[in-house]
Structures are given as C-alpha cells and as structure tokens.
Amino acid sequence: MKTINHPKWAKVLGLMSASLIVLVVHTDVLAAEQQGPLKPKRVTSFKQLKQMLSAKTVHAHHALALRTMTAADTGGVFTAAEASGAIGHSETNVQVEGVDEGDVVKTDGQYLYRIQNGQVRIVRAYPADNMALVASLQFDTTFSPVELYLHGDQLIVVGTGWQEESGNGAVPATPGNGLAKIAIWAPSGESRTIARVYDITDRANPSMQREIAFSGDYLSSRRIGDSVYLIGRKYPRYFLNYFVDADIRSGQLKMTRDNILPHISDSAVASGEEHPLPLTDLYYFPNFVEPDYVVVAGFRLNALAEEADIKAYLGGGEITYASSKNLYLSAADYSGDTATDPSVTAPVTHLYKFALNNGGINFRMGGEVPGTVLNSFSMDEHNNYFRIATTVDQWMQTGDTGSVQTWNNLYTLDADMKIAGRLEHLAEGERIYSARFIGERSYLVTFRQTDPLFVIDLSTPEAPKVLGELKIPGFSNYLHPYDENHILGFGQDTEETDTGVVTKGMKLALFDVSDVEKPVQMHSLTIGEQGTYSPLMYDHKALLFDKTRGLLGFPISETAQKPGEDWPTEVFQGAHLYTISLADGFQKQAAISHQGDGELYDWNHYIQRLLTIGDQLYTLSETRLQANDLAEFKLTGVLDFPVAVAPDCPLAEETVSGAAIAVDCPVLIDPINQPTVNNIGE
Length: 682
Hints:
Blueprint: E1 2-4, E2 21-23, E3 41-42, H1 46-54, E4 62-64, E5 78-81, E6 89-92, E7 105-107, E8 111-116, E9 119-124, E10 132-138, E11 144-151, E12 154-164, E13 170-173, E14 182-185, E15 189-199, E16 207-215, E17 217-224, E18 227-234, H2 237-240, H3 246-250, H4 257-260, E19 263-266, E20 275-276, E21 282-284, E22 293-300, E23 309-314, E24 319-322, E25 326-333, E26 344-345, E27 348-357, E28 360-370, E29 379-382, E30 385-398, E31 401-413, E32 419-426, E33 431-438, E34 441-447, E35 451-457, E36 465-472, E37 475-483, E38 486-497, E39 500-512, E40 520-527, E41 544-546, E42 551-560, E43 569-581, E44 585-592, E45 609-613, E46 616-620, E47 624-629, E48 635-640, E49 652-656, E50 659-663, E51 677-679
Parallel strand pairs: 21-23
Antiparallel strand pairs: 1-12, 2-4, 3-21, 5-6, 7-8, 8-9, 9-10, 11-12, 12-15, 13-14, 15-16, 16-19, 17-18, 18-22, 19-20, 22-23, 24-25, 25-27, 26-30, 27-28, 29-30, 30-31, 31-32, 33-34, 34-35, 35-36, 37-38, 38-39, 39-40, 41-42, 42-43, 43-44, 45-46, 46-47, 47-48, 48-51, 49-50
C-alpha cells in the first residue's frame, strides 16, 4: 500500500462537506427513559461480525468524507502555572487539572516545541534575545502532525495519515435520465491515527523511540502522568465502497478481515508489522446504531517496550471527556422515535465509560440520556457522579407539516451510568451555547435573543436545582473560572433589531456568582464590530490566563465600521492583552501583531497562540515567534520562519529496542529554509 498525506487541508476541511457521501443505519431505538445501561459484548467469531454488519441498511445520516483525512486544526494555548524548573512558564489550558490535552505548542521553560508548516520545530526560546532554531522534524508523506505532548525528555507527536489502496477508486455514475455523467471517487484507502514518541534528551538530535498506529480518523487524546490515551473512529472499508462498487452491491465481493476490521501496528510488537485487530479485542454494543468502530489505545511512556492496549467497539462516538480515572465518550443518535408516539422524534446520546489505569483502557459501563452534547465542557465527573448537559430538538409531525421544540436538560449519573438526578426543560426555545461544571455547581449559558446564565446546584446529585438566573444581551461561547465566586465569559455581543437579533463584536464578561440566587455581570467589554472573531470562541486552548499576574490574552481578528462601507472590515489581527481584576474589570494593556506595516492581512501572519516563559510573553504565527516583555510589552526578540513545504524524503530503517521501525527523515536544519534571527536590544 502507498501512503498519502494532505497536511495543508486542515484549513479547508469545512469546505469538504459538499462532497460527502452520507450513510445511515436505521434501527429501532428505545427511549432513553426505558433503555438500561449499554453493556458491550465481545465478538465471538468473524461469522458473527459479518452477520451483524450485513444486517445494517445504508441510508442517510452517517457522514463520511471521501479521499480526505481528518487533520484537525487543533489549537493550543495556555493557563499560567509554575513548573518545577527554575523558570516558570505557562501550560496548556486544560479542562481537568492533571489531565493534559494535546496542543500545537508546548514549552518546558527553555525550549518551545511547535507544529508549524507541517513540521515540528524545536526552538531555544529563553532567553528571548537569543532565540534559535535547534532542530526540525520534517516528515514524509506518511504522517501529518496534529498535536503534541511533552513528558520530561520525551516529545509525543500525535498525527494522521492516509493509507492508499491500489487503484484510484474512480467509478463514473451513468444515470439513465439524461443527466450529465458524473464521477464519484470511492475512498481508495483509509485514514490512520498515529502517535510517535521521540527522545529529546539531546534537543538538537531527537530520535524516534516508538510508533503506534491504527485505522480511523483521529478524535482526541489525553496524557495522564506517563500514560497516553488515543481515541479514533473508523468506518469499515466495505461500507465506504457500497455506493460506487457494483460488485459489492451484487455480493460478488465478500467481507474479509482486511476490509472490515481496523488495522493496527505497534513498533514494540512483531517489528511494527501492520495487521487486522484480533477479534479478542473487538466488542459491540447491543442495538448499536452506526456500524463504525471507536478505536481506543493506551500506552506508557516509561515502558515503551510494553505492548499498547488497543481495542475497538462497534457503536460510534464523537465527543470525549476525561477525568484522571475515567474516559467518557458520547455518541449522538438521531435515528429513533419516542416509545409512546412514532410521530414524535428526538435525539438521544449514548454514553460509554472507560476506566483508565497505567496505560490500560477498559470499558466499564454505558448509559443514555435525552438530547445531544455541545462539547466536552458539557460533561464532567465529580465524586463518582457523571454530570452532563444536553439540548433536545424534538420534531413533531402533524399531517404534512412539522414543528421543532427545543429545550435543555441536565442529568447526573451514578457509577453504573444510571440516571440519578435530572433537571429538564430549561430555557425552552433556546440552546446551550456554553457549559462549565465547577465543584458542586454548574453554569449554563443558553441563547435565543438574550443570554441567560443559569447557576445550578449539584451538591445533592439526585436533586439538581436552579439557584439563580441572569439575562443579558449577547452570549458566552466559553466559560472560565476566575475564582470560587467569579466566572469569566468569552463570546459575542448581540443587538435586537426590527429584523431579529444580530451579533456584534466579541464580548468579555466577568460574572459574580457569590450570591447564587442573584448572579451579576460585574464588568463587560465589547471588542470591535460584527465579524470580530477569536479562536477562543471555539477552542479553550486559545486562552492565556495568569491569575497571579492578573493577565489574560487571546488571538483576535478585529473589525470596524468604516465610513461609506456597508459592512465592517478587518482592521487588526494579532493578540490582545488585558489586566483583569474584580475592582477594575478589563483594562487593555497591549495589542501585538505579526503583520507588517501596510501589509495586507495574510493568515500566515495571524497570531494563533500565546504563552509565557519567565517575564516574557511569546506570540506564535506560521511565520514568526515573537517575544515581548511582560512589564511594558516591549519587543525583546523575533525568530522568523519562511513558509515552505518540507521536502519529501524516503523512509529509513532503524532498530529501536530490538524492533525495526520506520523513522522520519533525518533531523536537520536546512540551510535553504534557515530562519532569520533578529536579536533586539543588544
């Protein structure tokens, strides 16, 4: 097989939806109130697996991108935390303390590790006036880096690849109705999720220690101590080719282990040879809806010779949440009707709970709740209870017409994933825009015309209740704790007009929830006009928050309404820095940009991340690493990188711990692509 990679497509994956082939599996699903915990069963034979998959009918809900790979353009930013080393530095802004999340940039207080232009670059970042590129991992076409982890002298690069099958998969469709002929490209291969571990004891000469890979699109990952956990999603190749291969539809091509089982490889086992997942590691959920696999893998960084724990489960999954002990996976199910009235349909969410223990990952229990989940912040674990907030869109068919009713729910589930407490029909007609669970409280923001902030008491898990509610214009996409009694909100301002509600600029808000029955918006600030945007609105890792310094920052593209123009236009792209305090609210301190004077706005120069090392603030774009001091935000150092595609190179063979594995191109600093260094203030 030939492997093809598309590292540049991460920016345009949203445009691919127009070319999706959509599949769905129809099955009768019991209402969430009646179905018990979902317990997986091991697949006992290949014959049983084929029978289960053959019983599934291909319809129209399950979306799959063809001939593309999911290279999530994940971002990373930081909350302030002092490291154990001599130089304090910021860390990735994670949802759960002690559970690290993958990021496009990490730092250890001296070096900075960054995914940039399809490479992983190691830069000596501190001191700021002597920054230098130390090494660059330049990958061949088998691998595209997506996220990084740092553990001591180990760098973990999580990425994706596309494994090509023979043939181009092109099958012209020839409808007999006089329409123009079109060509449909079947997926002539499959995406892969890959993790590579590098020894960076010598930062100038990283060496790969381990590679683990499995079939499927990358969903998420976590690092807890020296254990790394990966989650992917794979659709069997057999079903992917259903619409475009007449031999499959006629039954002339059979299901085989090769075309319906996930493939795995582990450099610690059998010289890294790829092979189908053994049936002993394959499970299914009774009454599963989607015939695709959730593939989970775990391994230890301090025991790289041990075989990775890799399993697969038939049943699908989309959003992950992880505590220090358990991982939860949600899977939205839109296929079922309610148990009492077939004319009323509403989605439910299947929940799968996995125990995490020293690199091992084992399914424990499943459950189900009405509605669907917005993102990982809609889920939480506290004192052995799982908490989840959902939005319900209920469709009611009456004759030839239909209507949708929307409301929001919050549930607590016990250790066996059974519903213990519920709070339903919150903010009818509105949707959840953000959620945050902090200790024994939950904060929900819903929106339709105003921004209700709900404060919910969860001290008695069996009886959650609303303590207070605040309605103000606008909405928050992300909520971040300031302290025990104050919450930060980041989102958009809104305005009611004769034609409806319109969004305006980016809104920062500081909420006082010390009186839980009467939450108050203490301070707010609106930046720019309609179209002002920050990655923080969808990616919590885009926030720099340093409580000790009273400092917060984020990347932003700001717009302004210019005279004579119909719409606001972009006037600034870079990063905003603010001081934040209970007394004074948000006070702007600096606006830092990588755009040149008079230069048209180029996304290569857009600041994506902010971090701190010592008394220095670092901002990162595709073309620059820049340092400013935190006292007056004066420029202290610049390291520029040209935009260039890393050259292809053949794979080499290297023996690591007795196992031959494929390694990357030699680590090099290409003189042609050598970045320029401007040292400031010498």
